[in-house]
Amino acid sequence: MVPPGLVVPPNFAPTLSFKGLEHLRLPPQFRDPKSDWFISYLFAIDLTEPTQLNATRIGDQLLIYFRVLAAGQADQDEKMIQTDTFSIVTAKTPAKSGNQYWYTLCGQEPFANATALKQNIRVKVIPGKNEHGVVFISGSHQRLESAVWKERLRIRLAFEAATVPAKPTRSGKEARDPLRPISK
Known about the structure:
Blueprint: E1 6-8, E2 20-25, E3 41-47, H1 55-77, E4 87-91, E5 100-108, E6 116-126, E7 134-140, H2 147-161, E8 167-168, E9 174-175
Antiparallel strand pairs: 1-2, 2-3, 3-7, 4-5, 5-6, 6-7, 8-9
């Protein structure tokens, strides 16, 4: 039995170097360009192998992920997306942010109308949730003071504070969904 989540690297992005399970949460308004929650997401990569993590490496992996995701969505929806123009810049993080990395992703959104999009991305590496840690990623085009980001922070803090119970699988190994304690 496969634990809940998508295997990382996913089939659409085999060049990603992260290995683990991705647990994705999207709001119902994810594809609605008129919503504050448009292209807003959070996901956790439950790492299954030791991984070197730093601002540059995480940024490089995010850029690969979003370029390939956009290209695949564009092909599916027959949209013109210029993924070679996508860029990611490491933003300044606050002092004492420990294991947090902030980025700005610029490109085109592939889910509605292929318009230009500037996305804020916040990453927190959380050790201790499993043997190799969890990479917790939140993204939105909204300002960091918005209700969207306040909710994203609330969810991440709840995740960090939660004890994630293991679920037995048929193989006898324990599997878990790291976002389960915060799902509604």
